[in-house]
Design brief:
alpha/beta, globular, single chain, Hypothetical Protein Mth938, Chain: A, three-stranded antiparallel β-sheet
Length: 113
């Protein structure tokens, strides 16, 4: 799976355009995604991604970083042996493309703010 393009509210993966937040799973599945509290990422929001047992979870926090991580989330991921890489979504897309070539990588991508 390869992210070809990202801009505010839009992402192109393997030639297909998506316009809502997504989970990218290590086995190549792409799932629509939402959070319990819109701009706050919590453990419960990641259940599907965590079930895929990634080594790395790339987190796209939005074009300007509006999606925040709940307190203790990265530490809890580390306890599960999952490295969290939060960043702006544009950088997260680059990170996913690079890391998914060699590591079991999932991504949680907020496409707008």
């Amino acid at each position: 799976m390869h992210i070809e393009d990202y801009s505010f509210g839009r992402i192109v993966i393997d030639g297909t355009e998506h316009t809502r937040d997504l989970l990218l799973l290590p086995d190549g599945q792409i799932e629509g995604w939402s959070r319990k509290e819109g701009h706050l990422l919590q453990w419960e929001d990641l259940e599907e991604a965590l079930a895929a047992r990634p080594e790395i979870l790339v987190i796209g926090q939005g074009a300007v970083g509006a999606m925040k991580l709940a307190a203790g989330l990265t530490q809890r991921l580390a306890q599960e042996a999952i490295e969290a890489l939060p960043s702006l979504t544009a950088k997260a897309c680059e990170d996913f493309n690079r890391l998914s070539q060699t590591k079991r990588t999932a991504a949680a991508l907020h496409l707008t703010c």
